[in-house]
Structure formats: structure tokens, C-alpha cells
């Protein structure tokens, strides 16, 4: 018998638990990785991302970008998505978007997260596991 229904039930239970805790500790996300296990990433207040019992401080735009990437880890975010949802500025220049991506990539490396931001030519950016 497949373990998939058990994984789905566990994921839902953890998401329900995380939803109830959201008011006090921030948002808890479960991220499927390529090795078929789940990492727990917690988005806390004050631009802090907790992962593997460590807390990492990010700048406001980088924090928001990371949150969007972790909400849909295999989805490609277009520059327009980033302009509207992360920078919240319809007039944000392409250079500002590239700078935001550059800072996010730098922070992922600096904090040794096992993820990287991949450029999808002509489409946007996607978070992938290493």
C-alpha cells in the first residue's frame, strides 16, 4: 500500500496545527524536497525565517520573496508577480527586481539553505532544492 495517503493526512494535520499557531509564532510551511522528505520552514515576525532550529533575519523584500517561493516551491514567479506581490509597486524597475533576486540568492547561500533560485529564461524565477 502506498504511503501517499498517510503523507497527505500528515501534511494536512501539520498545516492545521500551523494555522492555529500562526497568531503567536508566525507562519509554518512544509516544503517537499527532491529527496522525498519534508522540511519545516517557519516564517516569523520581524522578517525572521526559522529552519532547522536556527533563525535567520532577512530584509523585508527578501523575506516576502522567500515566503512567496516557499508557498509554491515548484512554481515559477514572473517578474510581474514579483513586481506586484513582493515589491508592491507597479512601477518597480527591472533592475530593482533583479536586485531583489540577487539578495535572496545571496541570503540563501549565506544561511546555507539547501535551495537556490533558478532563472527560467523568458518566464521568471523558481525555487529549487539542491
Q: What do these coordinates show?
A:
It is built from 4 helices and 6 strands. By secondary structure, it is of the alpha+beta class. The protein has a 4-stranded antiparallel beta sheet. Strands 5-6 form a two-stranded antiparallel sheet. β2 and β3 form a beta hairpin. The longest helix has 22 residues, at 4-25. It starts with a helix and ends with a strand.
Task: Report a brief summary of the structure.
It is built from four helices and six strands.
Tag the structure with descriptive keywords.
alpha+beta, 130 residues, Arc Repressor Mutant, subunit A, 4 helices
**Per the principal axes of the C-alpha atoms, what is the gross shape?**
globular
Per DSSP E runs of 2 or more residues, the count of β-strands stands at 6
Quick check: average pLDDT? 76
Radius of gyration, whole Å: 15 Å
Summed up, the domain count is: 1
- Bin the strand percentage: 15-25%
What is the H-and-E element order?
A: HEEEEHHHEE
What is the helix tally?
Answer: 4
Low-confidence stretches: 33-38
Secondary-structure-based class equals alpha+beta
Percent helix range: 40-55%
Amino acid at each position: 500500500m502506498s504511503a501517499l495517503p498517510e503523507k497527505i493526512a500528515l501534511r494536512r494535520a501539520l498545516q492545521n496545527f500551523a494555522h492555529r499557531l500562526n497568531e503567536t509564532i508566525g507562519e509554518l510551511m512544509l516544503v517537499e524536497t527532491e529527496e522525498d522528505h519534508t522540511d519545516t520552514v517557519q516564517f516569523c515576525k520581524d522578517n525572521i525565517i526559522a529552519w532547522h532550529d536556527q533563525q535567520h533575519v532577512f530584509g523585508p523584500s527578501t523575506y516576502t520573496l522567500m515566503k512567496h517561493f516557499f508557498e509554491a516551491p515548484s512554481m515559477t514567479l514572473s517578474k510581474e508577480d514579483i513586481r506586484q506581490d513582493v515589491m508592491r509597486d507597479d512601477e518597480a524597475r527591472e533592475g530593482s527586481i533583479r536586485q531583489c533576486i540577487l539578495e535572496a540568492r545571496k541570503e540563501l547561500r549565506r544561511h546555507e539553505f539547501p535551495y537556490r533560485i533558478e532563472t527560467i529564461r523568458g518566464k521568471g524565477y523558481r525555487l529549487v532544492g539542491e
